[in-house]
Amino acid sequence: MHRVLWITLTLSILLILVSGCSGGGNTPVSPALTGDRDTDSNDAGRVLWGVYTVTIDPVTETVDFVPLRKADFNCNITRFMEPPISPINMISFSIDGGLSNLPDGYAVLDVSLTHPFPGLERYRGFDVRGLLLADGTEELKVDPELLHAGPGETRLLNADGYTRWWNPTEFTSPTIFGYEPGNLGFPVYPSATLNPYKYFCDDLDNIATLENVDPVNRGTFSLQQGTNVRRYEIQFKLDGGSPVFQFNYAIDASWESLGPGAVSWEVDDFPLSANCSEAWRIEIDTSTSMMYWSPSAAGGELVTEITVHDWQASELSGTVTDEVSEIRLHSELLDLGAIDMLASGATLTNDIPGEATWALSTMSDDLNIPGLGDYDIWVEVLSTDPDSYVPQIPGGDAIPVSNGALAAYMVGSATVIEALEPPSVIITVIIPDWGYVETVYDDVQIIGENFSPDGLMVDFNNGSYSLMLTEINYVSPTEILVDIDLHGAELSFYDVTVTIDNPVGPGTLDGTLANGYRVGESWPLFGKNLLGNCLSNATGPQSESDVVYSVPCETANAPETLLIGPDPDSPGERLVYFGYYSSSEQSFSAYRASDGSVKWTINAPGVYNYYRVMAVAPPGVPGPDGETGVVYVWAYPPSHAAPEQVMAISAVDGDVLWTWTAPQNGSWLHLERYGTVLPDGDFLLCHATYQPYFYYMTRIDYTDGSEVWQIQTQGHQTPDPVLSPDGTRVYLDVSGISPSPKIVAYDIDDITATYVWEFGSNFFPEMQSGPIVTSDGTIVVATKALNVADIQSKVVAITDNGNFASLKWETEFFAADGVPWSQLAEGPDGSIYAAIGYATAAWGPNTLYRIDGETGVVINNSGPMDGLECRSGLAIDHQGNVYAGADG
User: Fold this and answer.
1) Binning pLDDT at 50, 70 and 90, where does residue 316 land?
2) Is a pLDDT exceeding 90 seen at residue 544?
3) What is the per-residue pLDDT across 407-446, written as a single tens digit (0 to 9) for each?
4) 3-class DSSP state for residue 273?
């Protein structure tokens, strides 16, 4: 590369403050040449033009200046330094009194530079820089030759860069290649060898940053614009509490001759060698660092991202990596004081013409962190070719200049924060907190506090086995989504643990929710039937029923309803609930399905002697206060002593979560046997008022028992609403009261229920149990004969065709076979189970029938079961065991 000079000027500025006065000026400085102008022409690289002492009186705004060069100084002006006359009025200073605080030594100055050679287009300047030369005693780490201004010394606070050019310590030639104050004024030798500058070019106004330089213009200072202004924010050193307003100023530029044959001097006419050889801009980013300190601990990570801009790498034949030999970091934070980024394994993240970016992470072991605060990060970018400050002219080796490597410099900072107490990672809930084995769940929510994407890990572990998480997604500091594959998972409770990187110190942080997730045996898709009682992962037909065990009920009265649900405390365990209808005092219990033992028992409150279990919320369906497997129970007092109630009861301990009170007092038929739990957790039931009779279907908010909506239905006796498989349609039976018995379909939403179709008018004699819906959407209902002698008792299957229904099949039972009082159930293989008692004056034992779900053909039966009358409905577990409650 080839270096040349535009013009260099050194000034010693002395601002004389008058007591009690402040102000500013915009007074031009007119340097004068002394000595003869030698007309020899050579390639001079960079040269120094003159040295002056300038005195500014802020009151009178007058300026005196004294040239400091020796009287016999001879200037061997090179190609660029051949003006027809000496430069006049090329520099001026303007103090902004409003922004400055001169008593404290803070000054804001706008410096104007005017091109010295008006009309001579061939002297277009490149990379013009105004240097502030001052004392500096702060050593750049591990390099004692590099001294810069430190705390308490005169500093340029908004430097565009730093350079070694023209410092008086290293550039000592009494020619244009050195600093020589002479003997006409007092000698001034600023001690800093590394001095700050502001960059002057046509693209920048006084306050613009270097990012506003258009690379196409190559940092040119043209004759067309003539004058450029840059703002200097200077903190002067204090001597005995008073500021010392003195510094030296030099103007450095690059240029190259186009020769006598040139006819145009536009930017593109000049080769890239007309620009400075070293990098012209350095960006420093440490914003992603995280370093901490306390009296007992220090560490973290220093992340340094350096972007280097170099004009010589703008050609297609080269890149910045070709122009840079080393990138040195100097800082008190580094254990060694300085490191070479490239030799230390910095990652090249960007390399385009004229620009390249390297990033380096330095961890605790290589850091030296003495305390809190901001620390300087000095960057030294060494040039590959040329690699020295030697003037590129004949005999240049003999000229005394800096013996250091040609380099560009910039300073940034990195912050060390206090080693705070790390935030606690908290997990409050998993939604849903239950999953079925052999099932995949997407977007399971982990809700909590202080989550972070950094180092994020999630584990569901039961002590010996971790669930398979196929995807983990950070959403926010309070939410994480995971996809879980439960194929082959163990039936168990699982502790849920979230681990993240410690944001304020070393290591990691974690939080655990004990028993936060449970894997249980497969449960049916919601809406298979209103009981939720087909726990189907079993395959193949069930054998003829055998009684596994028989458990005495808590009372001697007939169980009217029976439901089975999950045990929130024991994965894989089921709870069986019986509901009673009797005139004596009643209790209500949860029985363990595995052995018939009682989990808990509660007594009916006050005058409420009758309990019927109406519904159980399946796993994953939300319940009040986050409860799992909530049980909905109907409570009824004798003789209409109080309004009927629906209670939401915790499956954990039998606690009542809320109570809904029915309008008016009722009779045994007014709150019907079963309700259903909707997919969002709300509870749906049918009921009636008493004298006069009005019939309703009501949706209750699962969170607090408030009413969501209510519609009036037709007359009914035992309407048990049941959902379609998709949860958007509900079916209920209307029987026993005019008009004739039938199945009615309603579409439901959050606002209301809408009538769709009805089926069975004049077809069903009477329905004593509500319908069920099988896994394929078939509606199955049992009817009984109106008279014992009739042979009209039957099980009927109905197909929902959208806007209408049709008969799928029907199976009749003769009078000798009895009446189907209890709710039906679907088994794991699609079979339909019906418990039918003898229809005689003295009721006989029930028989359990298994019916083919596709054809209605009876497959087999159990023979007479224990007990006389089965009214409770049936429940079937995943192994095909059938649960029934009978009046003994």
Assistant:
1) low
2) no
3) 999 999 999 988 777 889 999 999 888 787 778 889 999 9
4) helix
Q: Tell the residue number behind the tokens 């290589």, with chain if given.
A: 366
Name the average pLDDT for the chain: 77
| DSSP SS3 for 126 | strand
**CA separation for the pair 179, 275 (Å, rounded):** 23
Mean pLDDT of 799-807: 94
Report the alpha-carbon distance of residue 658 to residue 524 in Å, rounded: 27
Helix (H) or strand (E) holding 320: helix 320-323
pLDDT number for residue 526: 30
Give residue 219's pLDDT.
Answer: 94
Instruction: Return the H-helix or E-strand segment holding 598.
Output: strand 598-603
- State how far the Cα of 173 lies from the Cα of 511, in Å rounded to an integer: 69
Integer CA distances (angstroms), 815 to 533, 690, 768, in order: 29, 33, 16
Say how far apart CA 748 and CA 698 lie, in whole Å. Answer: 11
Torsion sign, CA atoms 860, 863, 866, 871: positive
pLDDT for 20-53, tens place per residue?
Answer: 233 333 333 333 323 333 333 334 345 443 444 4
Phi-psi region of 64 (alpha: psi -120 to 50; beta: other; left: phi over 0): beta
Nearest-5° angle of CA 812, CA 816, CA 822? 65
Can you say how many angstroms the Cα of residue 837 is from the centroid of all Cα atoms in its chain? 62
Which secondary-structure segment (H or E) carries 351? strand 347-352
Could you give the C-alpha distances from 328 to 324, 343, 351, in angstroms and in order? 11, 9, 19
Q: How many CB atoms lie within 10 A of CB 770?
A: 29
* Phi, psi values for residue 683, rounded to 5°: -110, 135
**Bridge partners, residue 436, by sequence:** 520
CA distances from 581 to 578, 586, 614, 770 (A): 10, 9, 13, 18
Instruction: Compute the distance between CA of residue 844 and CA of residue 12 in angstroms, rounded to an integer.
Output: 121
The span from the CA of 357 to the CA of 311, in Å, is: 15
Q: By C-alpha distance, which of 159, 154, 157, 239 is closest to 190? A: 154
How far apart, in whole angstroms, are the C-alpha atoms of residue 163 and residue 251? 12
4 pLDDT more than 80: no
* Residue in this structure with the two tokens 């001095």, named with its chain if needed: 195
- Residue 413 to residue 411: CA distance in whole angstroms: 7
Integer Rg of the chain from CA: 46
148 with 140: CB under 8 angstroms?
Answer: yes
Whether 593 contacts 883, CB under 8 Å: yes
The span from the CA of 256 to the CA of 246, in Å, is 33
- 840-881 pLDDT, tens digit each: 444 455 677 888 999 999 888 776 665 556 665 676 655 556
Residue 418 CB neighbour total at 10 angstroms: 11
Strand 846-851: give its sheet, edge to edge. Answer: 825-826, 832-837, 846-851, 858-864
Contacts of residue 162, defined as CB under 8 A and 6 or more positions apart, other chains included, come to: 148, 194, 195, 196, 197, 408, 409, 410, 411
- Residue 569's pLDDT is 82
More reliable by pLDDT, 45 or 298: 298
Write the CA distances from 886 to 561, 772, 793, 822, 864, integer angstroms.
Answer: 10, 20, 20, 10, 12
Residues in the chain: 888
Degrees to nearest 5, angle at CA 825 with 823 and 828: 170
Dist CA 782 CA 382 (whole Å): 92
Closest CA to 460 of 499, 512, 496: 496
Of 328, 403, 509, which is closest to residue 164 (Cα–Cα)? Answer: 403
Is residue 334 within 8 Å of 368, Cβ to Cβ?
A: yes
Distance CA 639, CA 333 (A): 86
Kindly give the residue spans of alpha helices, DSSP state H, lying in 324-406. none
Rounded-to-integer distance, Cα 536 and Cα 523, Å: 6
Instruction: Judge contact between 884 and 874, C-beta under 8 A.
Output: yes
579-613: pLDDT as tens digits: 766 656 567 888 887 777 889 888 777 777 777 78
Split at pLDDT 50, 70, 90, the class of 343 is very high
